[in-house]
Specification:
single chain, alpha/beta, seven-stranded mixed beta sheet, 6 helices, EC 1.6.5.2, Flavoprotein-like_sf, FMN binding, NAD(P)H dehydrogenase (quinone), FMN_Rdtase-like_dom
């Protein structure tokens, strides 16, 4: 059995919805299980309240040491000025001990994301996140164009890219569309198939 870990940060709930759909995709693949985790919040409740942040879910909070138990990773985060949110970066910054021993090297990793607008970082957020994977020796697994016709949709606004599933939050009221959720499901299923091909715990 392959154990995958989907770790995410979600302030307004958009990334959390993608994570839930990705889990459904991974669960559809025999011989693979996925555990959902959220990274610790770094902002005080007062600030979150002023920002209109959504209440936190009961998904458990991850610690860096939890990463060692997984055979692969799916990391999700919103963008801040074209890069991953500071909360997720702070979590990765705390993985120095794992980096020093290269305990995550050789393990597959994928990413998914949310931006406010079409020019808000659907590609730059992914590109800048890859550096984190590289230093740990992880193997980046993009979805490419395996989602098929959905990758070429032009009649409706759709987040995501060859790097991974994505959505647009707009002013916070827009929610992931059926097509965006379908792409997230596909990423979970596709990534699981790739992860099964890697040597290691089975």
């Amino acid at each position: 059995m392959k154990t995958l870990l989907s770790s995410y940060y979600s302030m307004y709930g958009h990334v959390a919805k993608l994570a839930e759909e990705i889990k459904k995709g991974t669960d559809s693949v025999e011989g693979v299980e996925v555990k959902l985790w959220q990274v610790p919040e770094t902002l005080p409740e007062e600030v979150l309240g002023k920002m209109g942040a959504a209440p936190k879910s009961d998904v458990p909070i991850i610690k860096p040491s939890d990463l060692t138990e997984a055979d692969g990773f799916l990391f999700g985060f919103p963008t801040r000025f074209g890069m991953m949110a500071a909360q997720f970066k702070a979590f990765l910054d705390a993985t120095g001990g794992l980096w020093g021993t290269q305990q995550l090297a050789g393990k597959p990793a994928g990413i998914f994301f949310s931006t406010a607008s079409q020019g808000g970082g659907q590609e730059t957020t992914a590109l800048t996140a890859i550096t984190q994977l590289v230093h740990h020796g992880m193997i980046f697994v993009p979805i490419g164009y395996t989602f098929g016709a959905g990758m070429f949709e032009m009649e409706q606004v759709k987040g995501g890219s060859p790097y991974g599933a994505g959505t647009y939050a707009g002013d916070g009221t827009r929610q992931p569309t059926d097509l965006e959720l379908a792409q997230a499901f596909h990423q979970g299923k596709y990534f699981s198939g790739i992860a099964k091909k890697f040597e290691g715990t089975a």
